[in-house]
Write a structure and sequence with these properties.
- The chain is mainly beta and about 120 residues long.
- Helices cover about 0% and strands about 55% of the residues.
- The protein contains no helices and 11 strands.
- Strands 2, 4, 5, 6, 9, 10 and 11 form a 7-stranded mixed sheet that branches. The protein has a 4-stranded antiparallel sheet with strand order 1-3-8-7, with no helix packed on it.
């Protein structure tokens, strides 16, 4: 079974870069038709899809976040990354890594809390 583990600093200042890591085990991030997403949930709000990277390296972003968000991967480390430039306090949220496939696969990490504050 595929397992996803998010990690990163719990507190980020608005002047810094928000960087998160999703370490994958039990499956390869290059498996055909697997799509790896970052999804977040601000306090008291619903889930927001931020973007994804596909098995072939293609990237997809939410239009509202595209200008300051980047998703990348390291195939050798079987890891997916999220970077957000100049985060704001409203970017405070629990950030999740998610795997979906065309066959209905849907796995989630446990999430990691990120607080943006000076």
């Amino acid at each position: 079974q595929v397992q996803l583990q998010e990690s990163g600093p719990g507190l980020v200042k608005p002047s810094q870069t928000l960087s998160l890591t999703c370490t994958v085990s039990g499956g390869s991030i290059t498996t055909a038709y697997f799509y790896w997403s970052w999804i977040r949930q601000p306090p008291g709000k619903g889930l927001e899809w931020m973007g994804a990277i596909g098995y072939d390296g293609s990237t997809y972003y939410s239009p509202s976040l595209k200008s300051h968000t980047s998703i990348s991967r390291d195939n050798a480390k079987n890891t997916v990354y999220l970077q957000m430039n100049s985060p704001k306090p409203e970017d405070t949220a629990v950030y999740y890594c998610n795997l979906q496939s065309v066959w209905g696969t849907n796995y989630w990490g446990q999430g990691t809390q990120v607080t943006v504050s000076s």
